[in-house]
């Protein structure tokens, strides 16, 4: 192995808080005032953080979580509304979304999601791309893209069928219906539901177990597992991101965004 060690400086990240504890790096999604919903700036930071973690030789394990008791409520609807019929914004956002998915699949180090509160939309996708997902029993997992006139193009169509099978994936991706953390654990979407007072300790124990293990064997085993997943993911990502881009030009997407902002139920027109 090379002796040229690289330690990455994460100080340039503004909406992701990055901390170190020995060889464990914790990344905290940090927009607590909006339940860690993703705007354009946060989306761009997520587009680079996992590649940075991958090249950080001082990191063996990653923990991904959210500030102020919630993981991430998904896309900021005001930001999503800005994208409606804006080809440049749509193209850039979809390109970044695909880069996030690919970087998570390429990440050599074990990554653990610690979920309280909401893991919705892209927030849910970020969680289920992780190697381990621990959540409180009352956490909320959902990929409700269809409820806002969109396709599950940020990873849901890739991961849900692999984790819970096609029947259950259809059940939740075609309706957008949510699951509790306990339900998500029962069907295999996540690793385990853990009572809130125990969650931090359980995640810390697994992170330290991974960090103290045979690091190269763990990484190569993860790479072997992900090899088949990557082969499946590529065509799915291509279809899903293209279809989501198309949906962002529909009236249904505009209607849903405006209804959400006005706290109303959308009336879709199928156009």
UniProtKB/TrEMBL annotation:
SUPFAM superfamilies listed in its UniProt record: ClpP/crotonase
Pfam families hit by this protein: ECH_1
Could you give a GO molecular-function term held by this entry? catalytic activity
Q: Which domain of life is it from?
A: Bacteria
InterPro entries noted in UniProt: ClpP/crotonase-like_dom_sf, Enoyl-CoA_hydra/iso, Enoyl-CoA_hydra_C
Task: State the Gene3D superfamilies in the record.
Answer: 2-enoyl-CoA Hydratase, Chain A, domain 1 (3.90.226.10), Lyase 2-enoyl-coa Hydratase, Chain A, domain 2 (1.10.12.10)
Task: Report the sequence similarity comment from the record.
Answer: Belongs to the enoyl-CoA hydratase/isomerase family.
Protein name in the entry? Enoyl-CoA hydratase
Q: Which organism is it from?
A: Streptomyces fuscichromogenes
Organism classification? Bacteria, Bacillati, Actinomycetota, Actinomycetes, Kitasatosporales
């Amino acid at each position: 192995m090379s002796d040229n060690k690289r330690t990455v400086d994460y100080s340039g990240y503004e909406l992701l808080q990055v901390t170190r504890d020995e060889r464990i790096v914790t990344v905290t999604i940090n927009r607590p005032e909006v339940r860690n919903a993703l705007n354009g700036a946060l989306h761009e930071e997520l587009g680079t953080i996992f590649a940075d973690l991958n090249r950080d030789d001082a990191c063996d394990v990653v923990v991904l979580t959210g500030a102020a008791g919630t993981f991430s409520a998904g896309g900021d609807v005001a930001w999503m509304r800005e994208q409606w019929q804006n080809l440049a914004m749509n193209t850039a956002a979809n390109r970044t979304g695909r880069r996030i998915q690919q970087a998570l699949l390429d990440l050599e180090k074990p990554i653990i999601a610690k979920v309280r509160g909401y893991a919705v939309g892209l927030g849910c996708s970020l969680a289920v791309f992780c190697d381990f997902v621990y959540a409180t029993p009352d956490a909320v997992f959902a990929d409700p893209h269809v409820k806002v006139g969109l396709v599950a193009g940020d990873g849901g169509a890739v991961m849900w069928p692999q984790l819970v099978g096609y029947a259950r994936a259809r059940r939740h991706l075609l309706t957008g219906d949510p699951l509790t953390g306990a339900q998500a654990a029962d069907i295999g979407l996540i690793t385990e539901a853990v009572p809130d007072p125990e969650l931090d300790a359980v995640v810390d124990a697994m992170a330290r177990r991974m960090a103290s293990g045979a690091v190269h064997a763990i990484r190569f085993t993860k790479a072997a597992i992900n090899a088949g997943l990557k082969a499946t993911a590529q065509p799915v990502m291509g279809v899903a991101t293209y279809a989501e881009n198309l949906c962002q030009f529909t009236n249904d997407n505009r209607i849903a965004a405006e209804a959400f902002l006005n706290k109303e139920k959308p009336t879709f027109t199928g156009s």
